[in-house]
Amino acid sequence: MVKRQNWVVIILILLVIGLSFFVLYDYVIKPSISGYTIGFYNQGAVDMANEIVKRAQEQGFVQINVNEGESVILIPYDPNQAGNTVTPTEESSG
After folding, report:
1. Is 93 among the domain residues?
2. Is 88 within the bounds of a domain?
3. Count of domains in the chain?
4. Which residue did the predictor score with more confidence, 54 or 32?
5. Helix, strand, coil content of the chain in percent (nearest 5)
6. Which pLDDT score is estimated for 14?
């Protein structure tokens, strides 16, 4: 009878330790890994946007291929050089 109680206690202790590791992983380790990954992903997007702006300023334009035979051309915008701009009026905005 005593041996059986010892085994039950050992199994319960192992179960508590296993569940503790699960909770620790799920609420502490996994979010820190995910945050680390998302941080690198965001930094990559920022680096890409900065590179596009830098190239547009250096070359005067940036061509980004979207699909086969399709592309987007970006040029720097200078509001002081904008000649033909359309100003909305009350008639056209309604």
Report:
1. no
2. no
3. 1
4. 54
5. 65, 10, 20
6. 94
Residue-wise burial string across 21-57, b where 16 or more C-beta atoms lie within 10 A, e elsewhere: eeeeeeeeeeeeeeeeeeeeeeeeeeeeeeeeeeebe
The answer to whether position 16 is within a domain reads yes
Residue 16 domain boundaries: 2-82
Please, which residues bridge with residue 63 across strands? 73
* Domain membership flag for residue 26: yes
Query: Among 13-17, 26-30, 40-44, which is the least confidently predicted range?
Result: 40-44
Record the pTM.
0.45
Over the stretch 36-57, which tens digit does the pLDDT of each residue have? 767 677 788 888 889 988 998 8
Amino acid at 23: V
